[in-house]
What does this fold into?
Amino acid sequence: MLGALINGESDQQIEVADRGLNYGDGVFETIQIRNGVALLWQQHLTRMRHGAARLKIPFDDTTAALFLSDISVLANQFNATGVLKLILTRGNAERGYKIVDNPVTRITTLSSMPDMSDLHSVGISVLLCQTQLARQPLLAGIKHLNRLEQVMARSEWSHNGITEGIVCDTDGFVIEGCMSNLFWIKGETLFTPRLSHSGVIGVVRNLLLELCVKEQLLNISEGFYSIQDLLNADEIFVTNSVFDVLAVKEIHLDQNSVNSGLSGQVFEFGAKTRVLNSLLQQYYLKEV
Amino acid sequence: MLGALINGESDQQIEVADRGLNYGDGVFETIQIRNGVALLWQQHLTRMRHGAARLKIPFDDTTAALFLSDISVLANQFNATGVLKLILTRGNAERGYKIVDNPVTRITTLSSMPDMSDLHSVGISVLLCQTQLARQPLLAGIKHLNRLEQVMARSEWSHNGITEGIVCDTDGFVIEGCMSNLFWIKGETLFTPRLSHSGVIGVVRNLLLELCVKEQLLNISEGFYSIQDLLNADEIFVTNSVFDVLAVKEIHLDQNSVNSGLSGQVFEFGAKTRVLNSLLQQYYLKEV
It folds into this structure.
């Protein structure tokens, strides 16, 4: 971690009474900083505000302005290209689930950007995880701090050749990656899972869908799909706010496939994936 | 909070990089201290160990011994009757869900015991909550730090006359209270929800079931039940490690019922509930 601000003060520690620790009672955002600019800031802000509202955590314009001020401090201090993480918790409280009217805790940290240039050029291998996501409309879509399902899914592999894991929900529908949203292309249609019952609705995910509609590039189909639908794809890619777009070149269906050293099911790093990534990068150029 | 130890040191703060904060990546226990003795310590330890194993968090005999040492320090310092909270997180890490081999974080806090003598003598009113628990076998039963469902359920009422909320799962089966396990008696049978898909398997819950079997007091039926099954009960009570047993004297079926000031459905603080609580208190006498 390059730097951290707690409620605007340079600090690395939070109170043990914080509900973020005790209950995962908060929301967070992971944001790419490029040349000192927080990419898609408005979109991240909107999602955080939406998540806080769902959890009944106060999030007013002052909080938004203070986060922006935090970002400015860290970005200037480290002349940054890196990864911001913003956390908003419901603040400190005595024991018990009851919500009390205490000030929220605002945490802003900056970490260095991982080098993923190799992965961007050739694509990634992914594992189909055994861990299933619960179907919980109350918490679906928002980026809250209850992330044990992702931790457990990510714990299924340690092989460095695997970059991401694909997870299904408890009904067997394919949902997302551990840390990313999932897309695939079949013919002239871009498919992506519906995230009404589980998963996190990514900022890059939504922007890509918007750009795709605006440019009339591909038909869009959002729904509940099986693993077989995914495996029948022409091209597959995952998105998040740190690596933008990564093409999936290989899917291992289980850990045996990874450990055997044999190839998983192979996919092409296709032309349409490249076009979609270009659209996104062009959009960023307007921001930076 | 009367006192807090972080990894054995008197402190009130944890690192912002702690995975307990970032992902709710840990387990906890709430334990009643009576005359300096941590009630049901072995049972709490067993559950914490089991929960840690499920989450692949290291929990060895040294960790257990250190927690016991923490408890001793706090109990002596405050000559305590109170409520202990133990938290074990996976410790600090850089950004990302991947588990790294870092030391765990051990948090032990002591709070004063809430005065619930009135509630013990007359029973409690409860609200049937709208919030539903997801069905997630991977996390069911253990006392992990992902507790947003409980926070949301508890946020449904602010009326001081309501002590607890009853929650169902997303299939409509009645599961537990926000902070307690649920039992009811019909005829000669003690009913309690099966917690294989959601809910926390309470230490007092399991002990009561054991004592009930040992004393051949009532038949036991654990399963998936509807709200109607609950409402048909002769007696209802909830259990946890802080208040032991509280009889339910009234169930409000919705918030309108609470706000109208009218009575909900009324239940008797029955003889069998009293006998079960006596069994538990006798068991404690052997410990204290």
Remarks:
- The first strand of chain B starts at residue 3 and ends at 6.
- The mean pLDDT of chain B is 96.
